[in-house]
Amino acid sequence: MSNRLPPIHAGEPPSRGQKLLELVVPSQPDVLRPAIDSVMEMLLARDLVAAPDQAFVRLCLDEAMTNGMLHGNEGDPELSLRLELSLEPSVWLVTISDAGTGFTPECIPAGAGEAAPGPGSALTPALTAESGRGIRLMQAYMSELSYYRGGAVLVMGRGRADR
Description:
Blueprint: E1 18-26, H1 32-45, H2 54-72, E2 80-87, E3 91-97, H3 125-128, H4 133-141, E4 144-148, E5 153-159
Antiparallel strand pairs: 1-2, 2-3, 3-5, 4-5
């Protein structure tokens, strides 16, 4: 795995695949779990995630949505996240958009730039840091991770378990 942070693009993400689910999620902690459950139910109903990977997918969704709520929407309960789940022939994708202006790599604390381990590996400072950990967790587990609109839109994906 690279020590580099995922790419941060200026424009909007390209439209990809067949849209399976679209949610508008208020920036309120009590709606986080039901939104994650909805995504997981759709992924599992289509056999897109293998049983051993479910906890990691759930963790990545939690980290991505929490980052959007806390950092992008600055904890404002009046703002929402937009979440889309889409499907391509070899990968499923989750796109999460917040109302913020994005971020720069310089916003990620020192130590978060270190390579993170894959599932079952020992923890590194990148994963034990209080801030920046979510990006490294997602980067370690997802086969695709990119940011758009300056960091206000996250696209993450993983290979389909049904293929």
